[in-house]
């Protein structure tokens, strides 16, 4: 039987996640993992750990032959990538929580893993405590994944919960998310959807074998949502959530985006409040499954790093099965979506580009419509993010070409035209 590897860790970063891991490891002696050195940027900061543990020189860790595992949990993606690539090249295993770095360098990281054969694990970068990557890799190791719909950013979910359920204003809610260690050090990454979109890029790789840059995904955060949108949501018995979604269409291509969305109260994601994340997977025979857990914060994130460390004891690696062992799927923007749009003036809304408009309310200062539009009108144009316009997806927003034709025919029949 293979003996379990002793893990000697070099840790980069001692912020919310790094310190969390340090504490969590002290409580899990059975793992046989010890932190030998921690590389930090600011030696002046007071830290609750022995001073001799720390260094500011990354080479002390990278060149130490005793250290066989690098845990990289720093903020800046440039240095993070340098550390991770050097470590992989020197045959060390790496565990990372750097979502932005992974999203920005995925093709190079895939190549490095191929070349070096070293393990590179990053479960904590996706939904913190929810083991979604390993599930997509191992459990859904087939072609039957119909769709994934997920809340992958804890801070924005926390802010929406505090604003709409507890009536805090946006800035109070954001401050609280920062104080609790949920938000990024640059919180616009959370608020404007970058963090969720970054996570969605590599989740698409594990789910569908798609490799896409964040900038090529359609995404937005919660920055355009207006108080009036919450009023409409309440009237219609919906919640508003920032949702990352991917759906396999009938032609086998995948529709994917990260946008705020109305969620019905009976949908599992409606249950996801505060800093929790949730993932709803629909697959061929299992039908719907729902994963739920804390998506941000020190210990929940450290728990996933710990689980990756534990997996290293048996040399676990991601195989990227959907990318290498199946025919990878392609992204498409050729589909329609049903949207809710609120706005101050009709002149900002390209009414003629909608296939049809189902509802419009122009009686108040804040006007809104619900209608169906081709996804490219969103993907290729910015009207929905400008001039105080707010766009939210309706429940089950994706409509395929075949359905559109049926729906159009039906409406013409109803109108007595055919
Ligand atoms: N800022 C991130 C979030 C941290 O709020 O989800 C966890 O990735």
Provide an overview of this structure.
- With 418 residues, the chain is α/β, with parallel strands linked by helices.
- The protein has 3 domains: 7-125, NAD(P)-binding Rossmann-like Domain (Rossmann fold, 3-Layer(aba) Sandwich); 133-289, Dihydrodipicolinate Reductase, domain 2, CATH 3.30.360.10; 336-414, 2-Layer Sandwich (Alpha-Beta Plaits).
- The protein is built from 15 helices and 16 strands.
- The strands form 3 sheets. Strands 3-2-1-4-5-6 form a 6-stranded parallel β-sheet, with helices on both faces.
- A hairpin with a 5-residue loop joins strand 9 (238-248) and strand 10.
- The longest helix has 18 residues, at 99-116.
- The protein is globular and about 80 Å long.
- The model has no long low-confidence stretch (mean pLDDT 95).
- The structure holds L-homoserine (HSE).
- Residues 99, 128, 153-155, 182-184, 190, 195, 295-296 line the site of L-homoserine (HSE).
């Amino acid at each position: 039987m293979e003996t379990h590897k002793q893990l000697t860790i070099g840790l980069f970063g001692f912020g919310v996640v790094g310190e969390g891991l340090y504490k969590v490891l002290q409580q899990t002696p059975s793992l046989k993992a010890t932190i030998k050195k921690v590389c930090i940027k600011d030696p002046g900061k007071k830290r609750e750990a022995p001073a001799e543990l720390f260094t500011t020189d990354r080479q002390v860790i990278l060149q130490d032959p005793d250290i066989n595992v690098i845990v990289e949990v720093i903020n800046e993606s440039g240095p993070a990538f340098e550390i991770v690539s050097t470590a992989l090249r020197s045959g060390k295993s790496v565990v990372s929580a750097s979502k932005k770095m992974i999203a920005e360098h995925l093709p190079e990281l895939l190549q490095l893993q191929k070349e070096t054969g070293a393990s590179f694990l990053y479960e904590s970068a996706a939904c913190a405590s929810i083991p979604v990557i390993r599930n997509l890799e191992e459990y859904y190791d087939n072609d039957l994944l119909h769709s994934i719909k997920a809340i992958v950013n804890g801070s924005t979910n926390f802010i929406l919960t505090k604003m709409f359920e507890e009536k805090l204003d946006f800035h109070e809610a954001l401050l609280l998310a920062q104080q609790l260690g949920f938000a990024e050090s640059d919180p616009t990454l959370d608020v404007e959807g970058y963090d969720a979109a970054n996570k969605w890029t590599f989740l698409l790789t594990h789910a569908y074998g798609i490799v896409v840059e964040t900038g090529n995904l359609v995404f937005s955060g919660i920055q355009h949502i207006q108080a009036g949108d919450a009023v409409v949501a309440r009237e219609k018995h919906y919640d508003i959530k920032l949702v990352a979604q991917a759906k396999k269409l009938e032609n086998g291509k995948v529709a994917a985006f990260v946008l705020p969305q109305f969620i019905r109260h009976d949908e599992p994601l409606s249950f996801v409040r505060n800093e929790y994340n949730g993932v709803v997977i629909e697959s061929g025979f299992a039908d719907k499954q729902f994963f739920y857990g804390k998506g941000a914060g020190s210990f929940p994130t450290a728990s996933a790093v710990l689980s990756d460390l534990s997996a290293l004891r048996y040399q676990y690696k991601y195989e990227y099965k959907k990318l290498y062992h199946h025919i990878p799927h392609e992204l498409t923007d050729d589909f329609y979506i049903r949207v809710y749009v609120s706005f101050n003036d009709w002149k900002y809304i390209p009414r003629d580009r909608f296939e049809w408009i189902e509802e419009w309310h122009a009686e108040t200062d804040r006007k809104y419509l619900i209608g169906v539009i081709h996804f490219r009108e969103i993907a290729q144009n910015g009207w929905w993010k400008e001039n105080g316009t707010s766009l939210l997806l309706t429940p089950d927003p994706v409509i395929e070409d075949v359905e559109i034709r049926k729906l159009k025919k039906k409406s013409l029949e109803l109108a007595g035209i055919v």
